[in-house]
Design brief:
There is one protein chain. The chain is of the alpha+beta class. It has 4 helices and 7 strands, in the order αβββααββββα. The chain has one domain: HIT family, subunit A (2-Layer Sandwich). The strands form 2 sheets. A 5-stranded antiparallel beta sheet has the order 1-2-3-5-4. The longest helix has 16 residues.
Length: 145
């Protein structure tokens, strides 16, 4: 059963890939093209509560998500933000960063704060249909395991 944070970010409709201990979701509010949520499936509410065996899977998960984002969107940098200010369960906002605009799904995505830290509330508007299309693009580029 998904925790409250995973549900808040639209699971299962936003799911890109489910792993044993983690899920990768397409972030409903796109800060930049391909913004994701990487969330622990358990109930841990601080990094210190994450078990070593749960952390060990992060190597595979981050390698897969970066490969999918690089192949589909060619990001310049990537940011992992573990804020947990509002949504308490352990999760990361994964924000691909772009020095130039990206054309995806008929939209022009802008990285509004490049090269400074991203502002999670400053988003690129995207329709439901474009969101579904972006999700399918990322899934199609996900490494086979």
């Amino acid at each position: 059963m998904p925790n409250e944070t995973i549900t808040k970010f639209g699971y299962p409709n936003t799911l890109l890939k489910e792993y044993r201990h983690w899920v990768v979701l397409l972030r409903p509010k796109q800060v930049t093209a391909g913004s994701l949520i990487l969330a622990l499936k358990g109930e841990a509410q601080s990094m210190a509560e994450v078990e070593e065996w749960q952390f060990s899977e992060l190597t595979k998960v981050t390698a897969d998500l970066e490969k999918a984002l690089r192949k589909s969107l060619a990001f310049d940098k990537i940011n992992y933000l573990a804020l947990m200010m509002v949504d308490n369960n352990v999760h990361f906002h994964v924000i691909p960063r772009y020095a130039q605009e990206r054309q995806v799904c008929g939209l022009t995505f802008v990285d509004h704060t490049w090269p400074k830290p991203p502002l999670l509330m400053q988003v690129n508007e995207i329709s439901d249909a474009q969101f579904r299309e972006l999700r399918e693009i990322l899934i199609s580029h996900w490494p086979q395991t």
